[in-house]
Amino acid sequence: MEVEMRRSAVSISLIGLLILTLALFCGSCADNGGAAGEDAVYQAGTITALQQGILEGDETFADLREHGDFGLGTFNGLDGEMVALEGKFYQIRTDGLPRNVAGGEETPFAVVIRFEPGSAQEKTLPASSSSDELKAALDRILPTSNDFDAVRIDGTFDLVKARSVPAQQKPYPTLDEVVAQQTVYELHEIKGTLIGFRFPSFVQGINQPGYHFHFLSEDRKSGGHMLDCSLRAGAKATFDSSKELELKLPGNSDFNKASFN
Ligand SMILES: [Zn+2]
């Protein structure tokens, strides 16, 4: 009798747990509009298309916002660097100044996620004197190199070496040709956030394997694509790792006619 009562108590608590789990799961479905998963990385366009000079896409920032509040990318014509943090989207041209992005603007390449790290996905970082040192420190923390990891780092930087690229006109050059015209600038003793991703090696062709970070200063007055940095000890790193990548390809004729062989 006593054993049976214990069993039914266990069953009731299991049912309770199941209901709670379903409620939490459905809650997160509602949060992202029922998209591919709880926290799928959403990507518009491919890095290969940019490399071939297909610098226009048809993904609007209004649509991108539906899929995430955190991420990076660029704009049609490679008109600067894009960074998204806490639901705000910024365009950083070669003057290094972040501007708000209108919902109707379009991008040929962007990656976003609804950034929702758990409390266990937060670590304090040691000092690092270069971006390579920082990446090595992150590699030691992240559990597997085969997931899609969104990474946010908040801290004080002795140096951020950043770049942006100038807007291009048709006929478009390749990505390498545009990067050759990049404007590089250094930000010293600055508080801010690195917003980025670490992608596995097998995304080659679709995205850039390894780390890719854009910087945004705490005062929102500077930023860009991070080339190198020196970070003081005590910075906070937060992660949101995902098993899901939702990829949306451009629907325009330049993309449709391109040969990727
Ligand atoms: Zn970038």
Element layout with pairings:
Blueprint: H1 2-31, E1 41-44, H2 47-51, E2 59-60, H3 61-67, E3 70-74, E4 81-85, E5 88-92, E6 98-100, E7 106-107, E8 110-113, E9 122-124, H4 131-141, E10 148-164, H5 175-179, E11 183-199, E12 210-217, E13 223-231, E14 236-242, E15 245-248, H6 253-257
Parallel strand pairs: 1-15
Antiparallel strand pairs: 1-8, 2-7, 3-4, 3-8, 4-5, 5-6, 9-14, 10-11, 10-13, 10-14, 11-12, 12-13
Bound molecules: zinc ion.
User: How many strands, what sense, and barrel or not for the largest sheet?
Assistant: 7 strands, mixed
Q: Provide the β-strand percentage band.
A: 35-45%
Low-confidence stretches: 1-37
Bound compounds: zinc ion
Distance between the termini: 71 Å
Structural class of the helix and strand makeup?
Answer: alpha+beta
The helical percent reads 10-25%
- Number of helical runs? 6
Count of distinct strands: 15
Strand order of the largest sheet: 6-5-4-3-8-1-15
Order of helices and strands, N to C? HEHEHEEEEEEEHEHEEEEEH
The rounded Rg comes to: 21 Å
**Shape label:** globular
Mean pLDDT: 89
Descriptors:
binds zinc ion; 6 helices; alpha+beta; 6-stranded antiparallel sheet; 261 residues
What can you see in these coordinates?
The chain is an alpha+beta fold. It has six helices and 15 strands. A seven-stranded mixed beta sheet has the order 6-5-4-3-8-1-15, covered by helices on one side. Strands 9, 10, 11, 12, 13 and 14 form a six-stranded antiparallel beta sheet that branches. It has a two-stranded antiparallel ribbon with strand order 2-7. Strand 3 and strand 4 form a beta hairpin. The longest helix is centred in the first third of the chain and has 30 residues. The protein is globular, with a radius of gyration of 21 Å. It starts with a helix and ends with a helix. The N terminus is likely disordered. The structure holds zinc ion. The site of zinc ion has 5 residues, from strand 12. Zinc ion (ZN) binds next to strand 12.
